[in-house]
Specification:
Blueprint (H helix, E strand, L loop, with lengths): L10 H6 L1 H5 L5 H13 L1 H21 L6 H15 L29
Length: 112
Amino acid sequence: MSCGDAHETECSEVLDHLYEFLDQEMPDSDCTKFEAHFGECNPCLEKYGLEQAVKKLVKRCCGSDDVPTDLRSKVMGRIELIRSGQAVPDHDITAAPPEPAVVEPMPGSAAG
């Protein structure tokens, strides 16, 4: 998404790091750049407002639920893969591989 206007900080950069901004997980200098961008770019400001509202809603509705330890480990593992620039597999990387199927011989047939 881009508003089509030239900005010191590109819309794509702001949107790619929006959750880091929302979660206050970025340096103050980057936060300042993002705040300046929101001041001049309505589409990005609207996206920020929407994501902020969703985050508040999720916290209100689910904030008291305990997260299962294995789920937290899986999510954190995927976040680390993404941050390191590695490809994230489509399947669950922490699950044990499926057991191979055992084929039983049919009664009356010779096992060979």
